[in-house]
């Protein structure tokens, strides 16, 4: 064989080798792709893997705090003050209750209150209207002293017209000699 023939065969062999189809290879499985901070296992694992993610998932919506007027455990749920016969003197226990309401009102100048004065059936209608008003005014004066603004308080007297208890004895009269503290939008307990 000549040198030239040998070179031609060699060039042909190289050319055939270059054009040959490579043997099919088994496809390699793609490595799991991880998003930044998320493991390859998916969102379920992601929630468990991230600190605080579970707490955020079950976190209930923020509930606004209950108004103390609606809280059964609050002293502000008590809104009736009782008086002795023919008296406008506020008893020590009633002063504590008035102070609690005054503190609530002083911290919320937009809240208004109505003081409703009542009397038992003894006495004339006019006298009982005046007595109910004097009782409500006594409560108002103490509230003003404790920081409530005058525009927050309305005073009304019903005298003997709206008894809390029917009857013509001391057990009924005791419940009817009262001042009711009423907040619009908050029913009396």
UniProtKB/TrEMBL annotation:
GO cellular component, one term: cell outer membrane
Keyword terms: Cell cycle, Cell division, Cell outer membrane, Lipoprotein, Membrane, Palmitate, Signal
Signal peptide: 1-20
Superkingdom of origin organism: Bacteria
GO terms under biological process: cell division
Compositional bias annotation for Low complexity: 41-61
Database matches in Pfam families: OmpA
Subcellular localization, as worded in the UniProt entry: Cell outer membrane
OmpA-like domain ranges (all copies): 70-187
Membrane topology term: Lipid-anchor
InterPro entries: Bact_OuterMem_StrucFunc (IPR050330), OMP_bac (IPR006664), OmpA-like (IPR006665), OMPA-like_CS (IPR006690), OmpA-like_sf (IPR036737), Pal (IPR039001), Pal_lipo_C (IPR014169)
Chain positions covered by the region annotation Disordered: 23-71
Family designation: Belongs to the Pal lipoprotein family.
Subunit relationships: The Tol-Pal system is composed of five core proteins: the inner membrane proteins TolA, TolQ and TolR, the periplasmic protein TolB and the outer membrane protein Pal. They form a network linking the inner and outer membranes and the peptidoglycan layer.
Stated role: Part of the Tol-Pal system, which plays a role in outer membrane invagination during cell division and is important for maintaining outer membrane integrity.
PANTHER family listed in its UniProt record: LIPOPROTEIN YIAD-RELATED, STATOR ELEMENT OF FLAGELLAR MOTOR COMPLEX
Listed name of the protein: Peptidoglycan-associated lipoprotein
Source organism: Inmirania thermothiophila
Gene of this entry: pal
């Amino acid at each position: 064989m000549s040198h030239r023939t040998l070179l031609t065969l060699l060039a042909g062999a190289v050319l055939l080798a270059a054009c040959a189809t490579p043997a099919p290879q088994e496809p390699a499985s793609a490595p799991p792709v991880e998003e930044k901070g998320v493991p390859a296992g998916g969102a379920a694992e992601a929630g468990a893997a991230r600190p605080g993610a579970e707490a955020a998932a079950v976190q209930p919506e923020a509930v606004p705090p209950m108004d103390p007027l609606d809280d059964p455990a609050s002293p502000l749920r008590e809104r009736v003050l009782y008086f002795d016969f023919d008296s406008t003197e506020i008893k020590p226990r009633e002063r504590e209750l008035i102070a609690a309401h005054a503190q609530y009102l002083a911290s919320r100048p937009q809240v208004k209150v109505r003081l409703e004065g009542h009397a038992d059936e003894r006495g004339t209608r006019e006298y009982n209207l005046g007595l109910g008003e004097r009782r409500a005014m006594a409560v108002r004066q103490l509230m003003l002293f404790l920081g409530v603004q005058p525009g927050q308080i309305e005073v009304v007297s019903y005298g003997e017209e709206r008894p809390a208890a029917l009857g013509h004895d001391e057990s009924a009269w005791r419940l009817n000699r009262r001042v009711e503290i009423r907040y619009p939008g908050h029913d009396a307990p």
